[in-house]
Amino acid sequence: MTSGFFEGIEKVRYEGVDSRNPLAFRHYDPDEMVLGKRMEDHLRFAVAWWHSFAWEGGDPFGGPTLVRPWHPQDDMGRARMKADVAFEMFEILGQPYFCWHDADIRPEQGSFAENLRTLEEITDYIGEKMQASGTKLLWGTANMFSHRCWMGGASTNPDPDVFAFAAATVKSCMDATHKLGGENYVLWGGREGYETLLNTDLGLELDHMGRFLNMVVDYKHKIGFKGTILVEPKPQEPSKHQYDYDAATCIGFLRKYGLEDEVKLNLEQGHAILAGHSFEHEIAVAAAEGMLGSIDMNRNDYQSGWDTDQFPNNVPEVALAYYYILKAGGFSTGGTNFDAKIRRQSIDPEDLVAAHVGGMDVCARGLKAAAAMIEDGGLDAALTDRYSGWDSPEAQSMLASSLDEIAARVLAEGINPEPRSGRQERLENYVNRFV
Prior knowledge:
2 domains; TIM Barrel; alpha/beta; two-stranded antiparallel ribbon
């Protein structure tokens, strides 16, 4: 028995670039081979439970606009209905994965014990639907930012009781993720930061955050969870400053607390923009350090100063993101989670399906463009040429010498380098050939 929410919407199929069907894939063919692997296996798409099913359409200036049959989300009957609708959409889209926070899938009950009971109940229900459908869990996580108890942070909270509540909450979510066969577990520090330094012991909070994450890793091994632990960089919003500002900041944090071999990064397009970076920059930084784990695919409105979480529609941006993902070897346990939401005025069920269809097509076009650039080899050749001077024995030996030895060589050989063009415009023109 179906919920009827998506009544009249058929399963989305690949119809090719000439299709005029608004609910058909024009570029995403899950079985198309790209660099020797099925497109579906490269992209590993996931639906975000929170934006697609839990979000009610509110914003800082207005209340809910999305009136759904499972609203208000305050009892287990509606939680099960929401799960029914979710799996119907997964079937319509052919989505292989989904992601959740605990608060997305179970109602808030006012106590940890009751929240644990309802989390266990709903994950049993979701598990049955996963087994019947074949849809898998890309990752689970804990919402430690919405409830008022988290207003001063979770692991960084000045109140030890909140730290304890956070530890218990994460344990319960890790248990649920493990039970459902999740391939990753994510920690997003939604309020792990500060509003003002005037009431903040920054060093103490960072130490507590580092200890907390070590506890998470220890528990992962204790329960035999084979998935990857991920942390997600975000520079600001809702806090004035958040400790997980960007990929480089997170990598430094992980190394400081001895976690560099245990934890990788879940990177989001919108968060990269908030940090003043491009998405490909964040991916390249994580890949260079061996810490690329998974991505949240979305976009921000470049005319707004906040995290608007829109579906991706910029093929050149997406192509460069997947270029660096493919260069790093592609995803292992990670994937492409649509951490994106429809607009407040897009109130029809069809809008939710159409948004994912468009996002999946954009990612497919980006992936194919990235693969074509790799096969062509033009960017690799340009890099090899630019750094070719370092191939000489003299250049390599210089790295093992000292400043005074190098200075003596410069004087003896009369070295006076002339600048070489970085050829940026030619490389940008090269990329445009593929996108």
